[in-house]
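ok new one. same drill as before - structure tokens go in, u give me an amino acid for every spot. 277 of them this time. try not to just spam alanines like last time pls lmao
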């Protein structure tokens, strides 16, 4: 990972390139929403990887994250709820010369679109998937998702969620992926580095971003995460190619939440290699 000072110096040198992503569209996210920093980190990563507007297609799902589709000066597609991954896969298969990024929230990904997630991982499509995890459906004003913590009271679950939440990273690791990473919306520099690593990966890059939702999910605000996030790089002798070590690492979602490249399998054939096309 690049250190913060190095990253800032690189961005200063490429400020004109960064500005190509800017748009005059009014931003409508709530104050304090993690989407601001996620979008900023994505623009940073694209700039630092020397990608321009003609090099990238960004596919957005429905939801709060999807409202970013017109907040960036780029080729974007705002798809159907839960269907962003087949949309992104089609774009990637249709043009090998572009980098395809997909973005969606926890509701769309693990309810309407969980079947598409399974096959995107299985087929190892050359897509960077930025998964926004704010543990609720924010756009519909606070419905619990499959990732909302048990017992948390939401607008449409006033007595509290009755069921255990899914663990996104562990779910994906069970599917034998080629790249799994995690970051946090309160750390733009770390997100930028993780997005850059995902862009460089040849197959399906699953990147979970833990995201604060200040309006509808007050169970896990920024200060809650700040006390709990840890970094994989700080672990001595951690082997990112050991899937069982990775699954053990991501189990804890309450005390020590590890960020970084959790798992990488450089030997797995991506969609093109496996299909022989």
């Amino acid at each position: 990972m690049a250190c913060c000072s190095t990253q800032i110096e690189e961005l200063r040198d490429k400020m004109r390139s960064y500005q190509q992503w800017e748009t005059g569209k009014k931003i409508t996210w709530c104050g304090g929403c993690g989407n601001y920093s996620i979008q900023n980190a994505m623009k940073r990563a694209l700039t630092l990887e020397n990608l321009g507007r003609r090099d990238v297609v960004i596919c957005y799902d429905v939801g709060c994250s999807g409202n970013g589709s017109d907040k960036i000066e780029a080729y974007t597609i705002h798809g159907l709820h839960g269907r962003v991954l087949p949309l992104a896969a089609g774009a990637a298969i249709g043009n090998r010369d572009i980098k395809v990024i997909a973005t969606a929230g926890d509701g769309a990904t693990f309810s309407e679109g969980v079947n598409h997630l399974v096959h995107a991982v299985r087929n190892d499509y050359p897509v960077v998937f930025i998964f926004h995890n704010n543990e609720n459906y924010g756009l519909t004003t606070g419905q619990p998702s499959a990732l909302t913590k048990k017992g948390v009271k939401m607008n449409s679950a006033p007595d509290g969620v009755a069921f255990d939440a899914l663990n996104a990273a562990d779910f994906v690791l069970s599917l034998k992926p080629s790249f799994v990473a995690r970051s946090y919306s309160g750390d733009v520099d770390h997100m930028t580095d993780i997005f850059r690593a995902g862009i460089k990966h040849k197959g399906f890059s699953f990147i979970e971003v833990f995201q604060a939702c200040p309006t509808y999910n007050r169970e896990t605000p920024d200060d809650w995460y700040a006390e709990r996030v840890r970094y994989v790089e700080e672990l001595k002798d951690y082997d990112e190619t050991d899937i069982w070590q990775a699954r053990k690492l991501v189990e804890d979602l309450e005390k020590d939440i590890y960020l970084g490249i959790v798992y990488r399998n450089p030997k797995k054939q991506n969609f093109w290699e496996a299909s022989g096309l």
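The mean pLDDT is 95. and btw The beta strands are 56-60, 75-78, 99-105, 127-133, 179-184, 205-210, 229-231, 257-264.
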